[in-house]
Design goal:
The protein is mainly β and 425 residues long. It has two helices and 23 strands.
């Protein structure tokens, strides 16, 4: 989600942060009904103070519009319970549901993939996956079940691929073969982030299938200065959302297909490190990306648009040095919402289930440094309320998905990571 205003410190790595005042939101009409946007028409907007948080890192940057940050705190009326389904995962990263409600769970640093039953029984590690560069923020990342899985048994995953001269995010697919020792067969790499760079940071890596058969892939800008400066450059994959067919070919309606020198897979540019992505009820893509110190962003990436990193943004270097001269810039999009200080977002779902009627169409985001499950109430594509759930657990939430049963399923980011299930009490 910007460009550099010197000075830029090469030490800018990951994290995500949030920002200033607590203005009263004034939603704008986006053609979405109040019910579709998650709040009944007759229900008034939340009011009051925001979720408690520290002072902003960049207090001199004001939000571009009311309600862009620090909206009123809200509280769920439904009591919840959290059930531990399984544990013993080493820094797990992603969950995907098979048709029979068993789950695929990835382990980031080990490159291992497991099949887990709803009761918590764990298979041996799936054999046949390619090697990963598991250093830093690399490793085995997202996993998704192919839309045609019932016929093809294809699964898809992202990983940090070791290469000559460095590494880069790759997307692979293969047939899942079950049994006492599950394995994958016919591995195909369908996408490779280019150029190759030596960095253990900011790979991105979320996968989102769309109902029309396309596949979004979110990509980070590798954090180090050599990568960061490419985030708005259409000749590089760094700091982009890309859109491909499941076989890796490029949709001909992608926005840069006819731009000379551009990577034709690119959908949107100017992002920092997107670890959260989901579709809404209108099948539009939403993402949350990590900022530096301040400036985590919720965006709705649209075709061909520029989200500004590193030219604009609401954060600063980890050293405290400035990155941006301004949070706004000509031709660059504003985030729908931002956080300063950061929440460090990872994992995302937009709730459509029936277990929690009050949560319908709310956005849920895993918080790492914030150690919370974040809930955002949305109306007309604007955030009007925010809640931080599970703070009492003191656990980094890496992943959040909605299960077929309407429950929320979470992964905690730890050397003894847990698979958790959230249901009404």
């Amino acid at each position: 989600m910007r460009t550099l205003s010197m000075p830029i410190i090469v030490a800018a790595l990951l994290a995500g942060c949030n920002k200033d005042p607590d203005p009263t939101p004034t939603p704008q009409d986006s053609g979405v009904s109040q019910q579709d946007a998650g709040v009944p028409q007759e229900e008034p907007l939340p009011t009051g103070p925001p979720v408690p948080q520290g002072p902003p890192n960049v207090p001199e940057f004001d939000p571009a519009f009311p309600g862009q940050t620090r909206v009123p705190a809200i509280q769920s009326q439904t009591a919840i319970q959290v059930t531990e389904i399984a544990s013993g995962f080493r820094n797990p990263w992603a969950i995907a549901f098979l048709p029979d409600q068993r789950m695929l769970v990835t382990e980031k640093p080990t490159g291992s993939l497991y099949i887990v039953t709803p009761q918590g029984a764990k298979s041996p590690a799936v054999a046949g996956l390619p090697a990963v560069d598991g250093r830093g923020q690399g490793g085995l990342l997202d996993v998704e079940v192919g839309p045609d899985y019932a016929q093809s048994q294809l699964i898809y995953w992202t990983y940090s691929e070791p290469r000559q001269g460095g590494n880069g995010l790759a997307v692979a697919r293969a047939k899942l073969v079950e049994g006492a020792q599950p394995r994958v067969e016919g591995v195909q790499v369908i996408f490779r982030m280019m150029p190759t760079l030596e960095s253990t940071l900011h790979s991105g890596g979320r996968l989102v299938f769309t109902p029309d058969g396309k596949l979004f892939v979110t990509l980070g800008e590798r954090s180090i200065l050599a990568g960061r400066v490419q985030a708005r450059d259409v000749t590089s994959h760094f700091g982009k959302v890309v859109r491909i067919h499941p076989d890796g070919s490029v949709p001909q309606d992608n926005p840069f297909v006819n731009t000379a020198g551009a990577k034709p897979e690119i959908w949107s540019v100017g992002h920092r490190n997107i670890l959260s992505a989901a579709l809404d009820g209108q099948n539009r893509l939403w993402t949350v990306e990590m900022g530096p110190r301040g400036g985590d962003e919720l965006n709705r990436p649209e075709a061909g648009k520029d989200y500004g990193w590193p030219t604009i943004g609401y954060g600063e270097e980890y050293s405290g040095a400035p990155i941006h001269e301004s949070p706004e810039g000509l031709g660059m999009e504003q985030p729908v919402y931002y956080w300063d200080p950061v929440i460090s977002p990872s994992g995302m779902t937009i709730y459509t289930g029936s277990l929690f009627p009050e949560w319908r169409n709310n956005v849920f985001i895993g918080g790492l440094s914030s150690q919370a499950l974040l809930r955002l109430m949305m109306r007309n594509d604007r955030i009007v309320g925010e809640e931080h759930l599970l703070k009492d657990r003191n656990e980094r939430i890496r992943e959040v998905v909605q299960g077929p049963d309407g429950a929320l399923y979470l992964l905690t980011d730890a050397t003894n990571g847990k698979l958790l299930k959230v249901t009404p009490r």
